[in-house]
Amino acid sequence: MRTTNWLDDEEQRAWRGFLDVHAQLNAVINRQLQSTTGLSLSDYAILVELTSELADDGSLRMFELGERLQWEKSRVSKQVSRMEARGLVERRHCADDRRGAFVDLTPEGRAAIEAAAPAHVELVRDLFFEGATREQVLALGDFTERVLGRISSR
């Protein structure tokens, strides 16, 4: 029988701290986005993907969007529908795949992220990076890359 290798006190502190930081950052950022721009954090996440260099002219397949955000298909579809109703994105059927669809950024969606991004970046910088040394930032980047590498190898 295999025994459990429990987290020690420092590992437990680090793990719980990470979970708390993640939850609280998401909550604060979501509230700030909604109060200043009317966008939710989910809206913002989709708009970021559609404006990334990996998106072809502000367009991604629905499944690609889901993969990038690590969201279930139904969550992507519901969020895109909400955003489509507000004119931020448009859904376009894929000529090559009758079941597939593209999500296209609209001019309204581009204007929304361009307006939201500066305050969002300021908040992230203030809450997450303020007071951190360059070495701490580099160490965090190395650490997260290592964890992501372990996840992707599974």
UniProtKB/TrEMBL annotation:
Origin superkingdom: Bacteria
Domain HTH marR-type: 1-149
Gene3D superfamilies: Winged helix-like DNA-binding domain superfamily/Winged helix DNA-binding domain
InterPro entries recorded: HTH_MarR-typ (IPR000835), MarR/SlyA-like (IPR039422), WH-like_DNA-bd_sf (IPR036388), WH_DNA-bd_sf (IPR036390)
SMART domains the UniProt entry points to: HTH_MARR
Alphabetical list of PROSITE patterns matching this protein: HTH_MARR_2 (PS50995)
PANTHER family (UniProt xref): MARR FAMILY REGULATORY PROTEIN, TRANSCRIPTIONAL REGULATOR, MARR FAMILY
Name of this chain's protein: MarR family transcriptional regulator
Annotated organism of origin: Nocardioides aromaticivorans
